[in-house]
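anyone seen this seq b4? input:
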Amino acid sequence: MAQAAEAPWPGGDVAPAPLAARARLLPALAAVYRAQLSRARVARIPLLFVATFQSVGIMILMRGVVDGGMEARSVVAGSSVLVVAFVALNLLAQYFGQLRASGGLDHYATLPVPPAAVVLGAAAAYASFTAPGTLVTAVVGSALFQLPMTHLWVLVAVIPLSGAALAGLGAALGLLAPRQELATLCGQLGMSAALLLGVLPAERMPAPVSYARDVLPSTYGVEALARSFDGNPDWLVVCADLGVCAGVAVVSLTAATWAYRRAAVR
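predicted toks r here
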């Protein structure tokens, strides 16, 4: 049987073939994650070493001021999460700012990929690079301040949740900044806030500054890790901190997805 001819349009032209179906979220997310991971492996590993050495150096400096107790736990926990802030917040803000300025978002806009897959894939790839540096910083800090390492397995939850919260914030800053330079500035300011509000003991901060600390997404990951250094941690409080961190991660990644949609149509 002969195949039916394509129906001509009024002007005599042949009707265009239908577009391919839009990719599903999970396969598209995995593809973007692998692409970003391979791209960032060469360019970001040296910066990860810088972030790790920076956090270890801060702990060495604070060793001359803080002897032990809850303050030491705050310093080690804050320095460990600072590695996550350097990569997931600072570098991701710069990446999306550069992507928007160079027109790279137009490439993603032409692909049948959900916007959430682009944001989540890039955020997951950048956050993945923070795991080794965060672990090294936590181990070195525990040895430096003579803290127990029994419950460092909490990093299995702290790293992805803090990374997701900070990566979502970094992506949103990079996508909403009208200029690439402003995206870089916002990323640097965000990392500085994570340094000052996360590493310094909360007990020594003025009340207005402590309110700003409560707003910072990484604070709850720092609190969860700091509580795990206790001899007998209150796991309900630790889980509550991680739950807040997870909720902030959902909000920040949702905001980053909205920012991507907004920037892609302009």
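The mean pLDDT is 82. The chain has ten helices and no strands. kinda curious what u guys think
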